[in-house]
Every structure is written in C-alpha cells, then in structure tokens.
Amino acid sequence: MVLIFTYFFYCLTGFCDSTPRAIFKQQAPHRGYDISDDRRRMLEDLRPSPRFPLDSSSVRNGTAAPRAQQKGGTRALLEFLRIHPDVRAFGAEPHFFDRFYDKGLEWYRSLMPRTLDGQITMEKTPSYFVTKEAPSRVCTMNCQTKLIVVVRDPVTRAVSDYTQTLSKNPGLPSFQSLALKNATTGLIDTSWSAVRIGLYAKHLESWLQYFPLSQFLFVSGERLVSDPAGEMGRVQDFLGLKRVISDKHFYFNQTKGFPCLKKPEGSSRPRCLGKSKGRPHPDIHSDVLQRLRDFYRPFNQRFYQLSGQDFGWD
C-alpha cells in the first residue's frame, strides 16, 4: 500500500521559520548536528530498509507532510507528482525519522535537492507510518506538518508484500503458513509484518496524538490506479499547487495493470514504474483471503471512522 505516503513538508531554510496557514483548532503537542563527511557517504548510508517497519515525506517552504504505506502506491504517487514543475523529489528513501534520526536534521536537509522559492521538495519512506517514534520526531521538526497517507485494501497489500518478498526469496514459506497461526483454527498471525502493517487504524492513532486530522490527506491506492488524474487533483489541491497533472499525462498499461506516464517531452518512450511493479500475485486459497478480510473488517471500520473516509474494502 502505502500510504502511508505519507509525505511531509518542511522549510529548507531557517528550520521552518516561515509561518504556515492555521488549518486546525486543537493544539498539537510541541516537542541539529554535523553533516557527514560528504554527500557520497550520506547516500551510501541509505541502505535498503528491512521489511518492517515500513511510507514518506515532501517538503515545502514552511510546511511539510509524510505519507506512508509499503506496497500501497507511494512510489507511483511520488513519480506522478514529479511531473509538476513546482515539485522536486529525492529519489531514494532516506529513512531519517526511523533509522538515521541520530544523524540530525542538518544531515536530512542536506540530502534534499535544491529548490527555488515556492517549490516543494519531496521524499518518501513508507516505514515512517508504522514506526512508533516517527510521529513525535516529525512533530519535533514541525508540528504544522501536512501528511499524505496512501492506503490500499490491507488484504491486497499483504499479498503484494508477500509477492515482493517471494521474488527475492523463492524458498519463502507459503502465504497461508505465514498469515495463519494455525490452519485449523484459522487465527491470524499478527506478528507477521505483512499482516501487522495493514492495521492502519492502530498506526493512525499514533499519528493523531501529534497531528490533527485536518493535516492529513488520505489517498486511495485503488483510485490511484483507476483514476490517477482524479486522485492527483486532490493531492495538488491539498498541497496548494496549481492543477497541472491531468488525464493527458496518463495511459493505462494493460500488461502491468496500472497507469503509466505518457512520453515526457524530450524522451523517446513512455515512463512506467520498474519491473518490480505489477508482478502477478501467487494463487492463494479463497478461504485464507476471507479469513484475512474478516480479521481486518473491524480495523478497517475504525480506520474509516478515524480518517472520515470509507474506502469500501469490505
């Protein structure tokens, strides 16, 4: 999924010394460091993340917003937003708020691409959404941060997560043996990260301790596939951007099963996400999927209540 895209915006100059618009009534609780030897060494530190914890951030003058959700669509959202002339993106996942927080905010800021006044700088790190310490750390940077969370049906997300891991580890046990504690009782094993990540309500509750709901935008991973221009319109509005990204930028790739970007100016071919996106999922017994749907149902309902949005996963 994902999500949680999350994205967050922070000011690139003066540690967020500009004042963002007040967009909520309640008060969120308010909670540097030498840069590493050189930029090359910093980037070498950005090693691949573990499977858990799992989303992302974007930056604008004075405000910021994380998004999150591994296998939820955060990479697609990032790539789609990069079309916008007022958006600059850091391609790798810096993992600052979960893995490299001790390097300090100056290190994090130094990774970001240079921007002009008024442009947004973005990065995505899905694992922020499920990292216990991330909400307070983001709030310490700026409690006015805007948050974009990309989510998809947690059952589909778990299968997608498993599919990705299986492609790297063909000897992986079956999905059923990992998802169920016991095949007879059908109890779901919540210690498996692919299942645990989909408990969106529990993760969101942690973030809501520091940020009001008005600072979140929840993007549907399913609608990002079926109506990318529509979802991107909502994102652009939320970020205060002019609506530049529209239907003219997309076409549906039947082979991959998701939208791709039409041929950019100066390029010889259209731009699709890499071969790791759109992998065919393994066959999983319908009884196992149903048990997962039944398990997630109360958590989904709670997430709908917290987010104020019904995603229709049931």
TrEMBL record:
<keyword id="KW-0812">Transmembrane</keyword>
<feature type="region of interest" description="Disordered">
    <location>
        <begin position="47"/>
        <end position="68"/>
    </location>
</feature>
<dbReference type="Pfam" id="PF00685">
    <property type="entry name" value="Sulfotransfer_1"/>
</dbReference>
<feature type="binding site">
    <location>
        <begin position="277"/>
        <end position="281"/>
    </location>
    <ligand>
        <name>3'-phosphoadenylyl sulfate</name>
    </ligand>
</feature>
<feature type="binding site">
    <location>
        <position position="152"/>
    </location>
    <ligand>
        <name>3'-phosphoadenylyl sulfate</name>
    </ligand>
</feature>
<dbReference type="InterPro" id="IPR000863">
    <property type="entry name" value="Sulfotransferase_dom"/>
</dbReference>
<dbReference type="GO" id="GO:0008467">
    <property type="term" value="F:[heparan sulfate]-glucosamine 3-sulfotransferase activity"/>
</dbReference>
<keyword id="KW-1015">Disulfide bond</keyword>
<dbReference type="GO" id="GO:0000139">
    <property type="term" value="C:Golgi membrane"/>
</dbReference>
<keyword id="KW-0472">Membrane</keyword>
<feature type="binding site">
    <location>
        <begin position="71"/>
        <end position="75"/>
    </location>
    <ligand>
        <name>3'-phosphoadenylyl sulfate</name>
    </ligand>
</feature>
<protein>
    <recommendedName>
        <fullName>Sulfotransferase</fullName>
        <ecNumber>2.8.2.-</ecNumber>
    </recommendedName>
</protein>
<keyword id="KW-0732">Signal</keyword>
<keyword id="KW-0808">Transferase</keyword>
<feature type="binding site">
    <location>
        <position position="160"/>
    </location>
    <ligand>
        <name>3'-phosphoadenylyl sulfate</name>
    </ligand>
</feature>
<feature type="domain" description="Sulfotransferase">
    <location>
        <begin position="70"/>
        <end position="297"/>
    </location>
</feature>
<feature type="disulfide bond">
    <location>
        <begin position="260"/>
        <end position="272"/>
    </location>
</feature>
<keyword id="KW-0325">Glycoprotein</keyword>
<dbReference type="InterPro" id="IPR037359">
    <property type="entry name" value="NST/OST"/>
</dbReference>
<feature type="active site" description="For sulfotransferase activity">
    <location>
        <position position="71"/>
    </location>
</feature>
<feature type="signal peptide">
    <location>
        <begin position="1"/>
        <end position="18"/>
    </location>
</feature>
<keyword id="KW-1133">Transmembrane helix</keyword>
<keyword id="KW-0333">Golgi apparatus</keyword>
<dbReference type="InterPro" id="IPR027417">
    <property type="entry name" value="P-loop_NTPase"/>
</dbReference>
<keyword id="KW-0735">Signal-anchor</keyword>
<comment type="similarity">
    <text>Belongs to the sulfotransferase 1 family.</text>
</comment>
